[in-house]
Design goal:
Length: 207
């Protein structure tokens, strides 16, 4: 009875170690990124950044301007493909497939992104285009990635996958702690301290 029991225990320990290092490898870079940006977000008011603003002003060629005078299929319809392609070259902003706000006089496209903000406004009668792009720097870019702000669907799913990897990493680590705790008496006091410190801070200092 003892040998099968030892074999099962050895198998589970091997599985825990395997899943622990695999999840650690998957989440390593992401965890480092989120830890660093946790610090930069916590000290955002102390980190100075000088936004760089780029403005643009062009006039659409007559065939493109004509396309904007007809009624859009929906109030938030994107710009026609040819118009968006032209603007990508003319003002260096990509509005392809982005929802636009159509009014009687103007088409407005908001183009927010991580660490940046941008917009394009087009006069439907004259085809006059004004644009603005604000770049807040790489720290703001990384901070927005941390928050998942204006980062797109791919980054949205990456955060979910990364979070699952972190959960696997911590839970397998917890089970490994339990297995080795008998040889390391300080294990559970340290784990308890890791729980107690944020709880005490939350109760006593957060109001």
């Amino acid at each position: 009875m003892r040998n099968p029991r030892k074999a099962r225990r050895a198998w589970w320990i091997k599985q825990l170690h395997s899943w622990h290092w695999i999840s650690a490898a998957i989440s390593l870079v992401g965890m480092l990124l989120f830890a660093i940006t946790g610090i930069t977000l916590n000290h955002a008011s102390s980190i100075s950044a000088q936004p760089r603003v780029t403005e643009g002003s062009v006039t659409l060629p007559a065939p493109f301007a004509t396309q904007l005078r007809s009624e859009p299929p929906a109030p938030d319809a994107p710009l026609p493909g040819a118009v968006a392609d032209h603007l990508r070259e003319a003002v260096s902003l990509d509005a392809r497939g982005k929802p636009a706000e159509w009014s009687a006089d103007e088409v407005y496209v908001a183009l927010p992104g991580p660490g940046s903000d941008a917009w394009i406004a087009i006069d439907r009668a004259s085809g006059a285009v004004t644009s603005e792009h604000t770049d807040r720097g790489w720290i703001s870019y990384l901070n927005d990635l941390h928050k998942g702000r204006n980062s797109g669907d791919a980054w949205f799913w990456f955060i979910d996958v990364f979070a699952v990897a972190c959960i696997v990493f911590t839970l397998t680590g917890l089970f490994l702690l339990q297995i080795h705790a008998r040889h390391r008496p300080s294990t559970w006091p340290l784990v308890g301290l890791g729980l107690l410190i944020p709880v005490v801070i939350a109760i006593l200092f957060i109001h």
